[in-house]
Amino acid sequence: MTKADLVEKVTALGDLTRRDGEVIVETIFGSVIGALQKGDKIEIRGFGSFRIRQRNPRIGRNPKTGARVEVPAKKVPYFKPSKELRDLVNPGEAAAKAS
User: Fold this and answer.
1) What ranges in the chain are assigned the alpha helix state H?
2) Which end of the chain is more exposed for a tag (fewer CB within 10 A), N or C?
3) pTM summary value
4) Per-position pLDDT tens, the chain of length 99
5) 6 burial class (0-12, 13-18, 19+ CB within 10 angstroms)?
């Protein structure tokens, strides 16, 4: 699913114009990105949570030349799905655990 597909779904839910749908989707994404930039954790019940993980610096290798390369520390976004979302994606596992 692309951002355009998501805009179409939002627009189809109500009496909204395509521009209204774009504003809604952009606002949601902008809010998530802004919160992550500030270092906040976002938790959406029944869906999952977004947070920032810190990666330590390390020594890597250039795959073309094999030369050692210093890879600096960096922050990366991380998504952890909720149990409800995992169960919806894997319905067979949820039923097997319940038995």
Assistant:
1) 3-13, 18-37, 83-89, 91-98
2) C
3) 0.76
4) 999 999 999 999 888 999 999 999 999 999 999 999 999 999 999 999 999 999 999 999 999 999 999 999 999 999 999 999 999 999 887 666 665
5) middle
